[in-house]
Amino acid sequence: MRVLIVEDDRTAADFLAKALAEAGYHTEIAGDGETGLELAVSSTFGVLIVDRMLPKLDGLSLVERLRAKGDRTPVLILSALGAVDDRVKGLRAGGDDYLPKPYSLVELVARVEALARRGPSEGAVTTYAVGDLVLDRLSHKVTRGGETILLQPREYRLLEYLMRHAGQVVTRTMLLENVWDYHFDPQTNVIDVHISRLRSKIDKGQSKPLLETVRGAGYMIRDDRR
Amino acid sequence: MTAVDVVRLVPRLVLATPFRLFALYVSLFCAAVAAVFIYVNIAMLGFLSHEAETSVQGDHDFLLARFREGGLPTLVNAISERAAASDNALYLLTDGKGRWLAGNLDTVAADLWETQGAAQFSYRKRGNEQIESPAFGIVARLPGDLHLIVARDIESQEALKRLLRRAFILGYTLIFIIGTAGAVIVSRRMLRRVDIASNAARSIMQGNLAQRIPVTGRNDEFDRLSQNLNAMLDRIQDLMVGLKNVSDNIAHDLKTPLHRLRTRAERALQSSRTPEKLAEALGSVIEEADTLIQTFDALLSIARLEAGSRSESFGPLNICALIRDVADLYEPAAEERGLSLRLSCTGDVMMAGEKHLIGQALVNLLDNAIKYAAPASETAERAQQTDVEIGLEDKGDTVDIVISDRGPGIPKKDRERVLQRFVRLQPSRSIPGSGLGLSLVAAVTRLHDGSVTLEDNNPGLRVRLTLKKNLTATEAAKPVEAASMLSHAI
Questions:
Q1: Closest B-chain CA to A197
Q2: What angle, rounded to 10 degrees, do the helices at B17-85 and B155-205 form?
Q3: Fewer CB in a 10 Å sphere around the end CB: N or C, chain B?
Q4: Cβ separation of A85 and B433 shorter than 8 Å?
Q5: Does the residue A226 lie in any domain?
Q6: What is B4-47 written as a DSSP string?
């Protein structure tokens, strides 16, 4: 899959491209907003990564123009402005995700993966299954090896998000944003405790644990098919 | 004052606002006086000349009647009687050749005879031939080639006119002199006070921040202005001091981790022989960097909150749901540390606010509470009690969010101080933290027209956030709708 990076800081763009290449993406770099928009319009990309402050055409205008042309390519907006208002503006302009600088490359790659795999048919999927773990989105029932696992509503939502992104690294911030709808960061590792509770319910006594901790990054539900 | 001083003062005085106001006032006053003068002049002179006209006409008619009655002798008699009886009535009767027949006038200018009817002329008084006096009269021709002039001396009218004019000129001069003097005096007084203030301002600009504008104690508008400016200067000075403290703290609190980071990187470069060691060192370098970034983010957030006003993202918010939500986020973490977390908020309580900001404040407070709370297992007695509590008290226009713990608490003398940036109490230095958590809470509450109070929980700390609901009528009327908007996250 091809990813377009629109970023005027050449060094940052190169690091990004390298990290994405290691994750298996082909990248192209545009150094300013106009070039970025031209490239985005003239060829097909899986994900666009757009810096907010760009020469010639700023990131938000770029996304707005792209959306005005009917282009629905997922866009991840990068910005040195991290405040809530800026985030809201970014998403309102048509961005799909917003990552404040400085970001960790792991976080960025995880978010690109989430955007890239976001299929249009997501809403239609009624069950997620990984190995012998099955989550039924209609009845909110979770089973492992046929045995029902009782989950709290929050644990269910956590597992649902992890299973939707099975095989991908999901960071703590992504969980906070998507499961709790929080855009602020707790200083203590509150998420870890939630995860370990969930893990004790789905992996306890199992020979093959599914919920993995990815060191320095986040968590992942192992999906052998992918 | 020397002549040079005066010359130097004049343009400043003339340019001064009070002087210009005075000049305007004096001009307007003069214009009004002129109008009054013109009116008086016209009315009075009109009245006097009308008076003269009617009396001359009456005289003329009477003499004409005499003439008709008894002819020339009767007329001459009547003229003589009348001339003797009055001192300002003038008569002259001549025959066709201009020879004097009767009256107290001797001669008149020859061209006066050319006119008929009313006329104004001048004459010389008998016995005082040098002075020409003004007169007003009627020139008439009588049958038998007789010429009759009946007139009045109008010297007094002219005198009155002159008197009025003189009074007017004198009045004007006085008004001008007094007005200008008044303007100069008032301007100078005001200029002096303005100068004092602007000298003080200049001295402050030169860096003498403690300087204040003197207040006379007269409690006039200048005093009030000076008092307000002084209050403003006090505030600015406070802020400057605060800013200096903050930058000192920033220098310390950012430089320390930067120094640690640098040292670690340097050590790793020098002595890490194995890739594992290098990876470990790099990991800790990244950790330090992350801490720094967090500190930066918190600082920026505080700065933005303090500079900002209610943002556009303020909306109806079910504060009770948010509290439940945050408590739910922290409950497992508290339990893991052997702490019990009790939540007391049920139902919906609406207010206007920014969910993520209030959420961040609550998270910071719960973080602190859990970090500092003593685990219940320490004493058997405590095991009966809740270690950390979060609750809401609905007070009508405001809500109180109360978060309490049973940790060491904060001594009374430090309670104001800990809300400032980077202030960490000595005992807590061993526990990780930036010293910005409570500052951020304070900034968030200020943005929501609220306040933070730190209280004693006997033992422990109780933090009370008082927030204004600030609901408009429509927002208050629709709590259920807004609540369901939020509940998708729960």
A1: B332
A2: 170
A3: N
A4: no
A5: no
A6: HHHHHHHHHHHHSHHHHHHHHHHHHHHHHHHHHHHHHHHHHHHH
Distance from CA of B453 to the nearest CA of A (A): 22
CA–CA distance, B81 with B77 (Å, rounded to integer): 6
- Report the C-alpha gap between B143 and A172 in whole angstroms: 135
Residue A138 and residue A37 share a domain: no
Query: For the domain B310-376+384-487, what is the CATH superfamily, name and number?
Result: Histidine kinase-like ATPase, C-terminal domain (3.30.565.10)
Q: With bands split at pLDDT 50, 70 and 90, how would you rate the model's confidence at B487?
A: very low
What is the residue extent of each domain of chain B?
Answer: 232-304, 310-376+384-487
| Residue A122 touches partner B, C-beta closer than 8 Å | no
Say if A154 is an interface residue toward chain B (CB within 8 Å): yes
**Whether residue A160 sits in one domain with residue A86:** no
Q: How far is CA B319 from CA B316, B348, B473, B477, in A?
A: 9, 7, 17, 15
Residue B138 backbone phi and psi in degrees, to 5: -120, 130
B237/B210 Cα distance (integer angstroms): 8
In B, which residues are within 8 Å of A214 by CB distance?
A: none
Gap between the Cα atoms of B485 and B490, Å rounded: 10
DSSP label at residue A129: E
Residue A225, pLDDT > 70, answer no
Q: Is residue A44 part of a domain?
A: yes
Answer whether CATH 1.10.287 is correct for domain B232-304: yes
Indicate which CATH number applies to the domain containing A132.
1.10.10.10
Length of chain A equals 226
Task: Determine the distance in angstroms separating the CA of A159 from the nearest CA of chain B, rounded to an integer.
Answer: 15
Spatial strand order of the sheet with B398-405 comes to B341-344, B388-394, B398-405, B461-468, B451-456
Together in a domain, A160 and A90: no
C-beta of residue B407 within 8 angstroms of C-beta of residue B427: no
Instruction: Measure CB to CB from residue A180 to each of B297, B329, B332 and give the nearest one.
Output: B329
What are the C-alpha distances in Å from B338 to residues A194, B331, B332, B406?
15, 11, 10, 13
CA distance A98 to A81: 10
- For testing the chain A interface, which of B292, B322, B363 should be mutated: the one with the most A CBs within 10 Å? B363
Task: Tell me whether the omega of the peptide bond preceding residue A102 falls within 30 degrees of 0, making it cis.
Answer: yes
Q: Pick from B8-12, B203-207, B370-374 the range whose average pLDDT is largest.
A: B203-207
Q: Does the reported pTM lie above 0.90?
A: no
Chain A within 8 Å of B283 (Cβ-Cβ)?
Answer: yes
Query: Sorting pLDDT into bands at 50, 70 and 90, what band is A101?
Result: confident
pLDDT tens-digit series, residues A166-201: 888 888 888 888 888 877 777 667 888 888 888 888
* A71 alpha-carbon distance from chain centroid: 20
ipTM passes above 0.90: no
Query: Is the domain of A20 the same as that of A35?
Result: yes
Q: Which two tokens stand for residue B278?
A: 């290098």
β-partners of residue A2 are A26
Residue at A151 is within a domain: yes
Identify whether residues A101 and A141 lie together within a single domain.
no
